[in-house]
Amino acid sequence: xxxxxxxxxxxxxxxxxxxxxxxxxxxxxxxxxxxxxxxxxxxxxxxxxxxxxxxxxxxxxxxxxxxxxxxxxxxxxxxxxxxxxxxxxxxxxxxxxxxxxxxxxxxxxxxxxxxxxxxxxxxxxxxxxxxxxxxxxxxxxxxxxxxxxxxxxxxxxxxxxxxxxxxxxxxxxxxxxxxxxxxxxxxxxxxxxxxxxxxxxxxxxxxxxxxxxxxxxxxxxxxxxxxxxxxxxxxxxxxxxxxxxxxxxxxxxxxxxxxxxxxxxxxxxxxxxxxxxxxxxxxxxxxxxxxxxxxxxxxxxxxxxxxxxxxxxxxxxxxxxxxxxxxxxxxxxxxxxxxxxxxxxxxxxxxxxxxxxxxxxxxxxxxxxxxxxxxxxxxxxxxxxxxxxxxxxxxxxxxxxxxxxxxxxxxxxxxxxxxxxxxxxxxxxxxxxxxxxxxxxxxxxxxxxxxxxxxxxxxxxxxxxxxxxxxxxxxxxxxxxxxxxxxxxxxxxxxxxxxxxxxxxxxxxxxxxxxxxxxxxxxxxxxxxxxxxxxxxxxxxxxxxxxxxxxxxxxxxxxxxxxxxxxxxxxxxxxxxxxxxxxxxxxxxxxxxxxxxxxxxxxxxxxx
Length: 608
Ligand code: BG6
Hints:
The chain has 608 residues and is α/β, with parallel strands linked by helices. Helix content is 36%, strand content 23%.
């Protein structure tokens, strides 16, 4: 997500820090900052915006004294992009400076406790809580204080810490988010990612979860949380810088496919407390929610496909009519929208002009707009009436994967939350939905563990010229995304079609060898989709079925199958989309396509 850099040695630290942050900018960020210790005090320079802003402010770091320091590029998750929310964060008496990657899930409880004890906060971030906690609990021994404070933090974190009175060390802590130490000659480095320091040293230690490193100019000592010294093995990096940016994956898209369990986990985990869905971001009262007589969903591309899935879910659970529009159509059809319409706007970037304009049209007509966005402080997030952030982290590949999955997770949270308020979900179902939602990351991992099998299937399919994705009900909604994924990155013509509709015309295109990918996860219509499979097979199609484990009927009908774990109906798309993403990725790879930046496409289209 964000980027961390640290330096301790005899050279001026700030230029090295800023240079390292510059090498991490591909990770996506919205602000940057550095903090050095000149032997007496912390010197902090940080600002919203690109690295260039920081470079101008500090003369590329030359204006900042000190030979020890930490730096950070921030991808906002808690608190909008701003100078105050940028890292490094300093404790109120300026004794501790902290940079952080990851999410402190219980930061609000910790922050309230500290405020009650008189601590003054200046930012809206979870990271500042760590700096204040360290100062508040400081007992004269920095290392001991850290080992006592770390267990208070729930969530994932990689931390770079400096204590003002000890300018001869940087302390690094890892739990969940990656952190490496660069080993130099009488100087050492800290980084969240290899590219930041690869031009300085190829020898590193990788910190493991629960490890604390004390980094000095002339040596590094690593401890576990019980204070025992841990022997680390030096790793010599042989990767190219480009490969290192993708954590060794060949493409960002594959890295982001693999990050989906974490993206879903991070998006839901803070919004489920004691078995209840908590959506504090929605400021509507239960009365206002009950007063809506319909829901409109507007979005583009894959985000629109999330909206189509959401229609099936909301109508089934909330029993409210739901309309879904591609944003570019919605705005210009003089939509029937008023204050009794709830508009849900979905956008990874939060900058898609079509989506932004559609939201404004709905708001002009009196509708209340809730946005589901992945970029904190983006235009749509700012102009919506409420915003629910997906916490998927920066998504670099143009073809979205982890943001799509995180958006689906927010839809499930909203369905449970609204369904409960509307009295449409019994206790038993509520409990089951929450438990299935919490189990999703692990079930996605189960599928990712079989990536080689799916790659093997792709190796037999990549030469096809036309591909159909068919499904019924929620499987049809999902087939739209499978088809788009394939088209976007492999340039193979593909079409998603309601399986029951195929026979009314388009089936004329099916001929010997046509590849049909049949989504057959929705139990209630299983027999029907299987008869649709036979319909196309009788005209020569080769059918790859995607269904729930042990659905023997499907394996008898389809020519080959990919099975996914079972889950509740509304969450099936989160599992069935994964094999389709992997298929699209490897088919494109076998075809030798570009993948991360496909021709003609942009990650976000900010013009109408
Ligand atoms: C397209 C992207 O330009 O915009 C798609 O190529 C994306 O991947 C669509 O789904 C919508 O973008 P956003 O940022 O509004 O979700």
